[in-house]
Design brief:
By secondary structure, this protein is an alpha/beta fold. Helices cover 47% and strands 19% of the residues. It has two domains: 210 residues, Spore Coat Polysaccharide Biosynthesis Protein SpsA, Chain A (Alpha-Beta Complex), CATH 3.90.550.10; 113 residues.
Length: 330
């Protein structure tokens, strides 16, 4: 018989974290699932660890492939999955033992296409979250589910912490050779969901570790998110124009975050200006709409405006702000 859930775990050089991740999946109180471990060309002992679990639990399937990146690993897992539902767990994270039980229960109870739980964090081995005293359920139709994706009060673009009906991924795949793959994909998947159900229970635990892509200093690959945003805005303009305030505000705050990442993490002045100029063109393309948004505060509009005018002004502004704060502190 086919399993109810296919759990897809991309694996690459995470030998220290992988056992805890897989153990947390195999310990689930809901047991009708398969685990697809996709060894994406790991050069440490991760591949051997995958094989060990496959030998000891028939629910575990291992795929070994040349390194192609997170998207390639997920796409391979999806193509080999047999479950009615899909879930993604990053190999350096872990999940609470009740996660699948609670999410499948919500899928069946509310007849939703995607069920979402809250995300907790573990930093330096310490959990930084608590389970809610009372669990609450929020049911969202297609439009409201998309609205929440961009508001981000309940959930955002991360593929993990969600249980999807497999048909939501028909004709949808993760972009290979890119980062920010969740940003470029989740909105398309969510758009296929007739209904989304959120539960405030913390089922997914994000483990912060050294060496992960988004914990590294800013680099050129991080700019992949801006072509993705161009596609998002085009898609949303065509299909959800009534949500323009939400998705444009989300883009605006995203751009500002990256502006500051670049300013504080890039020392080379020329590279800093090149990256800021790259972001500038995406801001300019949406500037008239951004500046009218009530969802963006005045400070945010000011920062977007000076970058749109001249990236050097943004750098000078931050230096002056730092000088003023230093003077006041003295």
């Amino acid at each position: 018989m086919k399993p109810v859930i296919s759990v897809i775990v991309p694996v690459y050089n995470i030998e220290s974290y992988l056992p805890k991740c897989v153990d947390s999946i195999l310990a689930q109180t809901f047991t009708d699932f398969e685990v697809i471990l996709v060894n994406d060309g790991a050069t440490d002992q991760s591949g051997e660890i995958c094989d060990f679990y496959a030998m000891h639990d028939q629910r575990v399937k291992v795929i070994h492939q040349p390194n192609g990146g997170l998207s390639a690993a997920r796409n391979k897992g999806i193509s080999q999955s047999r479950g009615k539902y899909l879930s993604f767990v990053d190999g350096d994270d872990r999940i609470d033992k009740h996660m699948f039980e609670k999410l499948i229960e919500k899928c069946l109870l509310t007849e939703c296409d995607i069920a979402v739980c809250a995300v907790g964090r573990e930093i330096d081995g310490e959990e930084t979250f608590q389970q809610p005293k009372m669990e609450s359920i929020i049911e969202l139709d297609n439009t409201e589910g998309m609205r929440e994706l961009f508001k981000g009060q309940l959930y955002r673009f991360a593929a993990c912490s969600k249980l999807y009906k497999k048909e939501c991924f028909e004709r949808i795949s993760y972009p290979e050779n890119k980062i920010h793959e969740d940003l470029a994909t989740t909105y398309k998947v969510m758009a296929c969901a007739r209904k989304v159900t959120f539960i405030n229970y913390v089922g997914y635990v994000y483990v912060k570790r050294e060496g992960s892509i988004l914990n590294q200093s800013y680099n050129e690959k991080r700019l992949d998110s801006f072509p993705a945003w161009k596609e998002i805005i085009k898609f949303m303009d065509q299909n959800y124009p009534e949500l323009s305030n939400e998705y444009l505000a989300c883009f605006g705050y995203w751009a500002i975050d990256h502006m500051f990442f670049i300013h504080y993490q890039i020392d080379d002045k020329q590279i800093k200006q090149e990256y800021l100029k790259y972001i500038r063109k995406y801001i300019q393309n949406n500037y008239k709409s951004l500046i009218r948004l009530k969802e963006l505060n005045l400070k945010s509009k000011y920062l977007l405006s000076i970058l749109a005018l001249n990236p050097r002004l943004f750098v000078v502004n931050n230096k002056m702000t730092k000088m003023i704060k230093s003077t006041k502190a003295a």
